[in-house]
Amino acid sequence: MYTRFPGMTLMGIAPNWLLIWLVAWSVNRPVILSVMVGVALGFIQDSMTFSGMSIAPTHALGLAIAGGLNSLLQKQRYVQEDFISIALIVFGMAVIVETMHAVQLTAMGSGMDNVWVLQQRIALSSAILSSLWSPVIYFPLSRWWRSLERKED
Predict the structure, then answer these.
(1) In whole angstroms, how large is the CA radius of gyration of the chain?
(2) Angstrom distances, CA of residue 13 to CA of 16, 25, 38, 100, 135
(3) DSSP letters of the chain?
(4) Which residues of 58-96 are buried (b: 16+ CB within 10 A; e: fewer)?
(5) Alpha-carbon 153 to chain mean position
(6) Which end of the chain is more exposed for a tag (fewer CB within 10 A), N or C?
(7) pLDDT in tens, 9-63
(8) Can you give the pTM of this predicted structure?
(9) Can you tell me the distance from the alpha carbon of 20 to that of 37, in angstroms, rounded to the nearest whole number?
């Protein structure tokens, strides 16, 4: 997740791989399960990015909201399964995740005066990159998960 290959970053921001996986996975799952997986992925990301601060914002809240909202979309009813819809969903969820991170920083009184200026740059960069990479991740994963479901039947 934190390996940065040339050409994969935009203004120093990389795609949010956990968010892309969460969106791909939670498309056809129940809301409560998607929220729980979002929390678990958020804690995994927190453990990888722990800076040693006594109080730090968590990624779990934003990913839980993104998982729940994505599951609520009931993709098969409202959105077709194509690369444009997946990219748009990931774009919106990336903005939500980064906004929740900025809200937590503001609520904690982080002392950063430019939280919201930085949030705009980070959210837009993350959303663009994540949405561009999402079809590349989504289609192989969805085909694999469908083949696993067929084997179970």
Answers:
(1) 16
(2) 9, 23, 21, 17, 19
(3) -----TTS-BTTB---HHHHHHHHHHTTS-HHHHHHHHHHHHHHHHHHS--S-SS---SHHHHHHHHHHHHHT-HHHHS-SSHHHHHHHHHHHHHHHHHHHHHHHHHTT-S-TTHHHHHHHHHHHHHHHHHHHHHHHHHHHHHHHHHHHHHH-
(4) bbbbbbbbbbbbbbebebeeeeeeeeebbbebbbbbbbb
(5) 30
(6) C
(7) 777 788 888 999 999 888 878 999 999 999 999 999 888 877 766 667 888 999 9
(8) 0.86
(9) 13
Tokens standing for residue 86:
């997946």
* CA pair distance 36, 81, nearest whole angstrom: 24
* Residue linked to tokens 């904690």: 108
